[in-house]
Design a protein that fits this description.
It is built from nine helices and 16 strands. It is of the alpha+beta class. The protein starts with 6 loop residues before the first strand and ends in a 6-residue tail after the last strand.
């Protein structure tokens, strides 16, 4: 796979029906060395020597792994822990979960557990942190000081180690210890190849690991990318990965924005992601459930210190759609504000200059124009003369979610909503719509949003029978 990146399969080719545990090991490994000359070859040689020493350190008894949310410390190379009688080499590795304390008052933690239970193959995540003992020997040693008069080029950096290994919950702890150390050594080696590849003189490009979940798979793959290198310069590497894993070449899977988000990681912007995942599907005889693909954030009234109650629902639906294209790696542009949306419509010639900064509504046609103006995203428009006619659009909506997988904005009268999916029966014609409602005004409380139906399945009677509706169906760009 070349020296640019490395991809690691966390399942290691092993297929097991037993529940799995992901051991995620993170920590910053300090790298500091002197290069006797400020030139490319000398710096590379010194870097390799330092990383080789660090690799040996990872295999030494000084390596310690602390377990997050517990008082457990593990010496993986020495075979010891702070609970040697409770966690032996013959213990199933799932026994480590007994040491981890969960906070029942942490809503985010409960929500992530709720989501995990909806997955076919439930995976627990055990978070480990890298540490080193300062001394592993009681033997007294005399310090040795050397003095060198030659000029040196000093290099200091911290490698952001982040490994993820998936193992069967029944695997013996003794074998898992070895797997964890091997993963650390492998990632250090991958980082070394990446940094050597992108070195320019004595300037070292830091290497960063990213984890990716392949479509229709519970398998995490790890790729090491050079930090600060534009996505456009890594396209050939992504093509190589797509080819190796038989993925289509028309949509991104290995961009940094597509990196897997672990259930216990917090989104720093405060928006809820994919609230529909916590809902049960409605029962329809012969029904086909077709849903939005990927990740989006829920945007609604009164967010971002913006009072848009009564006029901003279509803006919020558009923001949700924009978030989808960002989180799927199609663009690195930020989610537009109301003012930026309005200015885009002015710039494209759809609105007069006075529209920017106003409190005027927009509809699905404006949403289509803004997506194209700001992101280069094209959309199809579906016109429905009355609400009851939406019942006959099941096949078209199913096809959209299966082929494009993007959220749909629907506008009718003065209201706008986001359609995230449909459950449609071809034999009976019965249909239900998965609706994300931008008219919600409260806090980011998942329980309230679900229980009150702000995100929920609705029947055909949700739409006004004699009102017309326009649907904006965003299309995926061809990208990798």
């Amino acid at each position: 796979m070349g020296s640019t990146l490395h991809l690691t399969d966390t399942n290691q080719g092993v297929v097991s029906e037993a529940p799995e545990i992901i051991f995620r090991t993170r920590g910053g490994l300090s790298v500091s060395f002197d290069s006797p000359a400020a030139d490319d070859s000398s710096c590379k040689k010194a870097l390799v020597q330092e990383l080789n020493s660090l690799s040996e350190k990872l295999q030494s008894e000084s390596l310690v792994l602390s377990v997050r949310h517990s008082s457990l410390y593990i010496w993986p190379n020495a075979g010891g822990s702070t609970s040697p009688s409770a966690l032996t080499d013959e213990s199933p590795c799932k026994d480590i979960l007994n040491f981890i304390q969960s906070d029942d008052d942490d809503t985010r933690h409960k929500n992530s557990k709720r989501k995990e239970k909806k997955q076919q193959k439930m995976q627990e995540v055990v978070n480990l942190h890298i540490m080193f003992e300062l001394s592993t020997s009681s033997k007294a040693e005399t310090p040795l000081i050397t003095y060198n008069k030659q000029s040196h080029h000093r290099v200091s950096l911290t490698l952001p180690i982040d490994t993820a290994r998936s193992v069967s919950a029944e695997d013996k702890w003794g074998s898992v210890r070895g797997i964890l150390v091997k993963a650390l050594k492998q990632q250090l080696s991958d980082m070394q190849r990446c940094m050597l590849k992108y070195m320019k003189g004595t300037s070292i490009c830091l290497a960063e690991p990213f984890h990716f979940m392949l479509p229709e798979s519970n398998c995490l793959l790890t790729v090491v990318y050079p930090a600060g290198v534009a996505e456009s310069q890594l396209e050939d590497n992504r093509k190589m990965l797509h080819t190796e894993y038989k993925l289509p070449l028309d949509r991104p899977y290995f961009r940094k924005a597509n990196a897997y988000h672990f259930p216990d990681d917090v989104y720093k912007d405060g928006y809820l992601r994919n609230p529909h995942l916590y809902l049960n599907h409605p029962s329809i005889e012969g029904g086909t459930v077709s849903l939005v693909q990927g990740i989006y954030s829920y945007h609604h009234y009164m967010q971002d210190h913006m009072d848009d109650s009564g006029w901003g629902c279509a803006y919020r639906s558009l923001q949700t759609i924009c978030s989808w294209f960002i989180y799927q790696g199609y663009t690195d542009k930020p989610i537009p504000t109301h003012r930026e949306i309005q200015q885009a419509l002015v710039d494209v010639g759809d609105k007069a200059a006075a529209f920017a900064g106003s409190r005027q509504w927009i509809g699905s046609i404006e949403v289509q124009l803004v997506l194209n103006q700001l992101f280069g995203i094209t959309s199809k428009i579906m016109f429905v003369s009355q609400g009851t006619e939406l019942a006959s659009k099941g096949r078209e909506l199913v096809n959209h979610f299966k082929t494009e997988g993007t959220p749909i904005m629907i506008g009718g009268g003065v209201l706008a909503h986001t359609i995230l999916g449909v459950n449609w029966s071809e034999s009976t014609g019965e249909i239900k719509f998965l609706i994300l409602d931008p008219h919600y005004k409260g806090a980011e409380d998942l329980q309230t949003i679900l229980e009150k139906g702000w995100c929920g399945w609705k029947g055909i009677d949700f739409w006004t029978a004699d009102a017309y509706y326009n649907l904006c169906l965003p299309q995926r760009p061809v990208a990798i």
